[in-house]
Amino acid sequence: MNPEVNNIRVVQRTILILCAVILVISIWLAILTQVGYGHLQLSNVPSASVVTVNGHKVAYNANLKVRPGSYSVVITSSSKTPYEGKANVGLFKTTTFKPTLKDRDPNAIVSSIVGANGQYGAPGLSDVKWFNDNSWFAAVVGPGSSTPIAMQFTNGSWHIKYYLGDTYPQDISVLPANVAQYIQTLEAKYAGF
Known about the structure:
The chain is 28% helix and 34% strand. It is an alpha+beta fold. The strands form 3 sheets. A 4-stranded antiparallel beta sheet has the order 3-2-5-6, with no helix packed on it. The radius of gyration is 30 Å and the shape is rod-shaped.
């Protein structure tokens, strides 16, 4: 046989094999595009939490079908300190995202809203009591005063609903009955301080 014909046949076979490999890779990529997911499962998240994954709000107990990659998970809750973490999801793998959440510190909540109290510095709380699935708390603000305060967690942040300060709400009738009753108990207990 002619050597040129053999060379042409070798080149044709090589091109044919190369085309077949490209076709197999293309088919595999098309399949992965359709079914190439993993799962991100949330665990240990309080039911009243607001959870976002890459900025999209999801259910607190979600089991999400997602593309492989890294996802930002943000959890806010009335009773837990806000949490932000990353979850890495692999192809055809289930990743369980189980954060260790810390209880909120009511002193830090009040300090961030009320601020320092003149010569006494940051406020400290006493007689703290939580209400309504930890979406409310009431306490006495000190040192230097014995003023009751009631706070509510709404729309992802804490708000003062009752405090005898200059610019704060002072209408006890807008509070839930159990919170209002506790505020009245604190006012009676600390009357004259």
